[in-house]
Write a structure and sequence with these properties.
The protein has one domain. 51% of the residues lie in helices and 0% in strands. The chain contains three helices and no strands.
């Protein structure tokens, strides 16, 4: 759909450069999809997935090493 919009050009250019978009349409599409994704994520966080604690535990591989997945994170005070 083609339309006329008033958009902050500097912000649009910054987003395009930051994320590597070649077109303004791609940048705007990304922004809309990201806002929609965040709305859905907030709903999941609020409402949960409808699983019991036991179902959640059984959904994770028993030998899953959570600490191994945190390699790129900076440890908080008192954590190693």
């Amino acid at each position: 759909m083609k339309m006329t919009m008033h958009i902050d050009e500097a912000l649009l250019e910054e987003v395009m450069e930051m994320y590597g978009f070649e077109t303004k349409t791609d940048a705007v599409d990304f922004a809309l999809r990201e806002l929609n994704r965040r709305k859905k994520l907030r709903a999941f966080m609020k409402e949960g997935l409808g699983l019991s604690e036991d179902e959640l535990k059984s959904a994770v591989y028993p030998d899953y090493d959570l600490k191994a997945m945190r390699v790129a994170e900076v440890p908080t005070k008192g954590e190693k």
